[in-house]
Design brief:
This protein is α+β, with helices and mostly antiparallel strands. Helix content is 49%, strand content 18%. The strands form three sheets. A five-stranded antiparallel sheet has the order 6-5-9-8-7, with helices on both faces. Strands 10-11-12-14-13 form a five-stranded mixed sheet, with helices on one face. Helix 1 runs antiparallel to helix 4 and helix 11 runs parallel beside helix 12. The chain is rod-shaped.
């Protein structure tokens, strides 16, 4: 995917800009609507507060004995106006108007209106208090009216208390300015937060736009599931972020794996240590129950920040088997070459004896050589029934002789018809003998290897050599895949043979015992496999 250069992108087309603008628009709309709503509620509350304040003053005034008695008597001494003035000075309303039930005023801020009737009807004749906004002679005001009761309980007048709207508006304006200032502060903080959020998103997405991220995701999925190599992506916490189908197959991972730690998906062992980075190195080998894997783990960093690691796994089971088969064939070829060289020397001897006319001596020499070769093969075939195993032992004896190692099959060895898998038996024997011969390299002569077989209860194999053996502190390590103290051979990986034997023996339900040196000593026991026995009977094997 080719990313669009930043210089060519529209200023308003980038993800961070869109997020910033959307956040600011939403915040602005929210603050404005909230401010308007809060102003309306505040104004309504303020109006109610002023009305209740006026009602309290009116109710208190209407209950004053002086007001009641003076109004009942017609206020002959003109007391009501003075009392109303005192109440106005003490409680700070804009006016206190006392009138009788006919609406005639007995007090008013404008003395000229005292004695005149109210412009509106008396509202408290029902005996109830009333509040609201009154467009009176002094202008619109928050007004409360309370009834004045006579001694008989009848309504004899009313007290009207008002607070002019200008005072209410002044307080409302102050509240509006407070709300506006608070809203501006919220908008400023929201702008800063949105800007920081947009920059954070820009950094986290590496300045990629949504279309670019979607395209990268599609390409990643196509790449991961379109290749034969297994790929596992891990974050810095060791959790799986990416895994393709081949990796699931090789690692035997089923179900949901993304977001889970490797420890929950892979059992403890060398493979898990390689995946988590506990063990490092290029082209590291790990054995599973059915595969030989080559593991490479590479850390991944972007813009100088670590984002985890990528692990690749290659299935080298078949290739490694072919390589080992090839080395076996090369060993057989070397054995044949050695035998050819030996027989050529013997033919030269026979030819020399014949040229000297010593025919009887030549016949005796040929008979001796033939008897030795025949006795070795017949001796193995008489004790080791499987022809493949007998042939393998003959080849290993010849190869060992080329390396000045004397390999023998113990006289007490017996292996009639082993009820075990023949391929697994050949693999075990071949690896143990190869390991024993390799262990004798650069050791003093004589160099000997012996192998013993017994099929009394399953199959028992014991291989011994007179080399240095396995140190006591390395007995457990020699069976770990990838462990080896030898230099690698070209084209062939070390640390596989004994680990492979251990896997086969474990899978068959047998045992593999390693004894500490001096002298190498390995013992394998494989239980009889009923399926193999049934197969042999079906094939007519006696």
């Amino acid at each position: 995917m080719t990313r669009t250069p930043l210089a060519k992108r529209s200023r308003f087309s980038t993800l961070t800009t869109q997020i910033l603008l959307a956040s600011l628009s939403l915040l602005f709309l929210t603050v404005v609507l909230g401010g308007v709503l809060f102003t309306m509620i505040s104004n309504q509350t303020l109006d109610q507060q002023y009305q209740l304040r006026a009602l309290g003053i009116a109710t208190t005034t209407a209950q004053m004995p002086e007001i009641r008695s003076a109004l009942a008597a017609g206020d002959p001494q003109k007391m009501i106006a003075g009392l109303a003035q005192q109440i106005t000075s003490a409680a700070q309303p804009d006016y206190v108007v006392v009138s009788d039930r006919n609406g005639v005023r007995f007090s008013h801020p404008d003395p000229t209106l005292i004695g005149r009737r109210l412009e509106e009807p008396v509202a408290v004749l029902d005996g109830q208090t009333h509040v609201g906004f009154d467009p009176g002679s002094l202008g619109t005001s928050a007004n409360a009216k309370a009834p004045i009761f006579g001694s008989d309980g009848s309504v004899i007048g009313q007290v009207s208390v008002g607070i002019e709207e200008t005072h209410v508006l002044d307080n409302q304006v102050r509240n509006i300015w407070l709300i506006t200032g608070f809203s501006a502060l919220v908008l400023a903080l929201g702008f800063i937060a949105s800007l920081l959020l947009s920059r954070r998103i820009k950094r986290v997405t590496f300045d990629l736009e949504p279309a670019e991220i979607a395209s990268l995701l599609q390409e990643r999925e196509a790449l991961l599931h379109g290749i034969r190599e297994a790929v596992v992506g891990l974050d810095d916490d060791g959790k799986v972020t990416v895994i393709n189908g081949e990796a699931r197959r090789l690692l035997h991972v089923e179900g949901e794996a993304l977001g889970k730690p490797v420890a929950e998906l892979i059992p403890d062992g060398r493979l898990r240590d390689l995946l988590t980075g506990k063990l490092s190195g290029a082209d590291q080998v790990a054995l599973t129950e059915d595969s030989l894997l080559v593991v490479n783990r590479m850390p991944v960093a972007t813009a100088g920040r670590s984002i985890g690691s990528v692990v690749t796994l290659r299935d080298r089971t078949e290739i490694e088997g072919l390589v080992r088969d090839l080395h076996s064939i090369q060993g057989l070829m070397e054995a044949m070459r050695a035998l050819e060289h030996e027989y050529a020397n013997r033919l030269h001897i026979v030819d020399g004896l014949l040229e000297m006319g010593d025919v009887d001596q030549a016949k005796a020499f040929v008979s001796q050589v033939s008897s030795m070769s025949h006795s070795l093969g017949e001796g193995l075939r008489s004790r080791i029934a499987p022809p493949e195993l007998a042939a393998l032992l003959l080849a290993k004896v010849a190869v060992a002789a080329e390396q000045d190692v004397q390999m023998t099959v113990t006289p007490g060895s017996r292996l009639e018809h082993p009820e075990v898998d023949q391929a697994e038996l050949l693999t075990i024997v071949g690896n143990l003998l190869d390991n024993a011969v390799d262990a004798l390299a650069n050791t003093p002569r004589p160099r000997t290897v012996s192998v013993h077989f017994d099929d009394a209860d399953g199959v028992f194999i014991a291989v011994r050599d007179n080399g240095p053996g396995v140190p006591a502190d390395r007995v457990e390590q020699v069976l770990v895949d990838g462990y080896s103290t030898k230099e690698p051979r070209p084209g062939m990986r070390r640390g596989i043979g004994l680990a492979l034997v251990s896997r086969i023996v474990h899978r068959a339900g047998g045992t593999l015992d390693v004894f500490p040196g001096p002298g190498g000593h390995f013992e394998v026991w494989l239980p009889a496999n009923p399926n193999v026995a049934e197969k042999d009977r079906s094939a007519g094997v006696d």
